[in-house]
Amino acid sequence: MKPRKDTPYLDLFQIIGLKLKKKADESIKELGLNAQQGKIIGYIYENQGTELIQRDLADRFHLRGASITSMLQGLEQRGFIERKIPANNERQKNIYVLPKAVELIEDFNDSFQKVEDEIVQVLSEEEKQTLKELLIKINERLKAQ
């Protein structure tokens, strides 16, 4: 069903979000992970030098503690990440990617970039810039509330 011009913004964001998730999941399905797992692995890789902990991931990806715990346990069991207790703080576990995950990160990034390119190909360069600016503005407004 195609949204109409009078479709509320909230509904449009939800419809677009679900479609994006489906496309992203399909794009990396062959790698044995879903899009959220791929994004989390990429984020861990980019930030593992910062003593990244589970709470950081929950905050960044807007997930509840139990959800992120379950996801990290699955990624750890499959050999994509490891959690280590640092010597200076035995109450936390820092999270790192393992070589198996590093090999996939470039594939994730390529897949996600193809999805993004496909999504915005109907827009002119000016429209792409305007869209990005508007989405950033909306995101900043939501953070402030």
List the helices and strands and how they pair.
Blueprint: H1 9-28, H2 35-47, H3 54-61, H4 65-77, E1 81-84, E2 94-97, H5 99-120, H6 125-144
Cα(first) to Cα(last) distance is 32 Å
Secondary-structure element series: HHHHEEHH
Strand content: 5-15%
Query: In what order do the strands lie side by side in the largest sheet?
Result: 1-2
The biggest beta sheet reads: 2 strands, antiparallel
Helix segment count?
6
Mean pLDDT: 86
The SS-based structural class is mainly alpha
Number of strands: 2
Percent helix: 55-70%
Radius of gyration: 18 Å
Question: Please, could you describe this protein's structure?
Answer:
- The chain is mainly alpha-helical and 145 residues long.
- Helices cover 66% and strands 6% of the residues.
- The chain has six helices and two strands; from the N terminus they run H-H-H-H-E-E-H-H.
- Strands 1-2 form a two-stranded antiparallel ribbon.
- The longest helix is centred in the C-terminal third of the chain and has 22 residues, at 99-120.
- The model has no long low-confidence stretch (mean pLDDT 86).
